[in-house]
């Protein structure tokens, strides 16, 4: 199916929700399938309030201090000069060869082993 915009999904319901509780699904997304439970209204509200408090803190900071002019960095994303070596670099090699699966499992197995063995030589991900 792939990724698309919300407007293209309107009324089609050809996707599945993941990570929302049954209560949220029944109230906000009636009829949509969901096999994985998750966040409740309380959890969603807590997240929203926490994010709001980061942008609009109740504590006063000194004028022109770092805290007063920037949001905290939780460290989830960080730029690294030259990229970062990752163990999933080989996935595009494996997923980009569906014909080998049809030809035979032996060829596909050899391709996977070669890709995993050589992933560190494939370069860095930027």
UniProtKB/TrEMBL annotation:
A molecular function (GO) term: glutamate synthase activity
Domain named Glutamate synthase central-N: residues: 1-21
Pfam families reported in the protein's UniProt record: Glu_syn_central
Cited SUPFAM superfamilies: FMN-linked oxidoreductases (SSF51395)
Name this polypeptide is given: Aldolase-type TIM barrel
Organism the protein comes from: Artemisia annua (Sweet wormwood)
